[in-house]
Write a structure and sequence with these properties.
- The protein is of the alpha+beta class.
- Helix content is 47%, strand content 16%.
- The strands form 2 sheets. It has a 3-stranded mixed β-sheet with strand order 3-4-5.
- The N terminus is likely disordered.
Length: 193
C-alpha cells in the first residue's frame, strides 16, 4: 500500500506513531540517590537501636520537631510545599513522553519507530526554500504543529514567491513522512539592498 493511501501517522493496521519516551536518567538518579541515602541512614540507626545503642541525635531531634511544631508553622508549610512541588514534577515527568525536539515519522510496522530531529527537518526545509526562484534568504522554525518560514525576496513578485515557497515547503514536508505533518506558515518580505 502506498504512503499516499495512508492517513498521517497510521499504517494499514491503524498503528499510530508517537514520540519515543525519554529515559529521564537524571531525575531518576536524583530520586534514587535521595531515597537510598535516607533509607540507608534510617536503617543504620534502627539497627543501632536494636543493638542497644541510643537513637541518633538527628532522629530524636526530627521526632521532637515533628511532635511539637504546629501544622501552620512556616517551616512545616515550606517543607510540605517543597515536597508537593517535587511530587508534581515527578508525576509530570512520569506521564509525559519528553524528547520534544524529535518529530515521529510514519511507521510502516507497529514495532518500528523512527524520529527526525527538528533542526534536521528545518535544514531540509530551508534547502527547499532556497531553491525557490527569488528567495535570497530563508529562516525556518519547525515546531510540533507548525512550520514558520520567513523569506527575503530580491526579485519577482512577493505574492508569487510566497505561493511557490508554500508549495515547495509543502512538498518537502510531505517527503519527510512525518506522522503529524505540521501546518506551514509563510511570510515573505522584499529586500532591495
Amino acid at each position: 500500500m502506498s504512503s499516499s493511501n495512508l492517513k498521517a501517522g497510521e499504517d494499514d493496521r491503524g498503528h499510530r506513531a508517537h514520540r519515543p519516551w525519554s529515559a529521564r536518567r537524571i531525575p531518576a538518579a536524583m530520586v534514587a540517590s535521595v531515597v537510598l541515602v535516607a533509607a540507608g541512614a534510617a536503617l543504620i540507626d534502627v539497627v543501632a537501636v536494636r543493638a542497644g545503642r541510643p537513637a541518633a541525635a538527628w532522629r530524636r531531634h526530627l521526632a521532637d520537631e515533628l511532635a511539637t511544631r504546629p501544622v501552620d508553622d512556616i517551616w512545616m508549610l515550606t517543607g510540605a510545599a517543597v515536597a508537593a512541588a517535587v511530587g508534581i514534577w515527578l508525576l509530570v515527568l512520569a506521564l509525559t513522553p519528553g524528547l520534544r525536539h524529535w518529530l515521529p515519522l510514519c511507521s510502516p510496522a507497529p514495532g518500528l519507530r523512527a524520529c527526525l530531529d527538528r533542526d534536521g527537518a528545518a535544514d531540509l526545509l530551508r534547502d527547499a526554500a532556497m531553491r525557490v526562484p527569488g528567495v535570497s534568504k530563508a529562516r525556518i522554525r519547525v515546531r510540533r504543529h507548525r512550520v514558520k518560514a520567513r523569506a527575503d525576496v530580491r526579485f519577482r513578485d512577493p505574492h508569487q514567491v510566497k505561493d511557490d515557497l508554500t508549495a515547495a515547503l509543502g512538498h518537502e514536508r510531505d517527503q519527510l513522512a512525518l506522522a503529524s505533518p505540521p501546518r506551514i506558515v509563510v511570510r515573505v518580505r522584499r529586500r532591495t539592498h
